[in-house]
Design a protein that fits this description.
295 residues; 14 helices; 60% helix
């Protein structure tokens, strides 16, 4: 309950979000099919298929990179392709597709077998599955799962509300506020245009550190303090975002240039803390992350 509460309070409208979440699980079937949740689910499945296709291209590159052949390479490659096959076939059962990249990370260290696999055929199967995705995923089954979970979610929402009420009572008795209160009370004040204008004029510049670990509520605070002509500077590293469990979203830093048109990006690429061996090892891992700006 405390974890759910903490995640909620990282949003600008936590109680509205909770109410909408409960309502989403209680909607009728047609509303579910037309709604954002089902479309988001389809989008996630499509992304998984694209991961499969990307991995296939990677495997194809490996098969063309080496002159030698070994049975070990064949065995591992076949395992990878079999897992991909199961993922593609799962469309027919309406299960979606799971990412299948775990066993492909070390392919560049293996040598080829005498008979490279027919990767082109698997690519075509994956593409065909992608095209028929909306028809094969079973919306009815997904909706039934949500409908079955609705009472549980409603009960959880009531427990969260009870916890919040008791927590608020104890804070008031001690005349204290917590970190979330500081954010939400400030948001409430800045939603008054007159107050927002006053503080925009008071601050000539806005500086935000560790921007990769800011929440949606904190992003809204920055928006209210800064108009389109604001002098704003943020510092952060999208590779070091570690507070998602507290409601942080990496999208804040990834979309900064879109939110503040004309922003200048300065990459700090010189490291004074670690040796080259440590940096090389870390970068080999980090470069596989999705949703990063790159350095």
């Amino acid at each position: 309950i405390l974890r759910c509460y903490s995640m909620m309070m990282a949003l600008p409208d936590p109680w509205g979000w909770l109410e909408r979440s409960v309502s989403a699980y209680e909607m009728d079937f047609q509303a579910f099919c037309d709604g954002e949740m089902w479309q988001t689910y389809l989008h996630g499945c499509r992304q998984n298929v694209e991961e499969c296709l990307g991995a296939l291209h990677t495997i194809e590159g490996y098969t063309k990179s080496y002159d030698g052949y070994t049975p070990l390479y064949t065995q591992r490659l076949r395992e990878c392709i079999e897992r991909l096959q199961q993922s593609v076939l799962s469309f027919d059962r309406g299960e979606g597709v799971c990412p299948v990249v775990e066993k492909w990370q070390g392919l560049n260290s293996w040598k080829k077998d005498k008979q490279p696999p027919d990767l082109k055929a698997w690519q075509e199967k994956a593409k065909a599955a992608y095209k028929r995705l909306p028809a094969n995923l079973d919306a009815k089954a997904q909706w039934e799962k949500m409908a079955a979970a609705a009472p549980v979610l409603a009960t959880l929402a009531e427990l969260i509300k009870s916890f919040a009420e008791e927590y608020e009572t104890r804070k008031q008795k001690k005349a204290t506020v917590d970190f979330f209160d500081m954010e939400h009370k400030t948001l409430a004040a800045l939603n008054n245009p007159a107050i927002a204008d006053e503080y925009r004029q008071r601050f000539q510049a806005v500086f935000v550190d560790e921007y990769q670990d800011t929440s949606v509520a904190q992003f809204q605070l920055v928006n209210l303090l800064c108009d389109e002509n604001a002098n704003i500077c943020v510092v952060g590293d999208d590779d070091q975002s570690i507070y998602r469990f507290r409601g942080a979203t990496i999208e804040n830093i990834l979309s900064f240039e879109q939110r503040f048109a004309g922003a200048k990006v300065i990459r700090l690429e010189q490291n004074y803390r670690s040796t080259s061996n440590i940096l090389d090892a870390a970068n080999c891992v980090i470069k596989n992350n999705e949703g990063r700006k790159g350095k």
